[in-house]
């Protein structure tokens, strides 16, 4: 994917899958009890690929001032708030279901 001109938004699922696979398939320590340097190097290579695509920002055009303002000043909420909302929505009966 490095042949692609940046900026690019890569599919995060691919990197999460690679990280998970590396974490699960490679032991943290070698048989002699030392850190598994191969595993650490592999993890770093995956993270480094993700960082590569974040180096070049998207050139947002000034003619889209309304969108630019919304992206810049949109409210940010905590993970806890999102979690609480998701829990609440899962407890609310759907249309046609009984409470």
UniProtKB/TrEMBL annotation:
Transmembrane regions listed in the UniProt entry: none
Protein name: Ras-GEF domain-containing protein
InterPro entries: Ras_GEF_dom_sf, RASGEF_cat_dom, RASGEF_cat_dom_sf
All residue ranges annotated as the Ras-GEF domain in the record: 4-39
GO annotation, biological process: small GTPase-mediated signal transduction
Pfam annotation, one family: RasGEF
GO MF entries: guanyl-nucleotide exchange factor activity
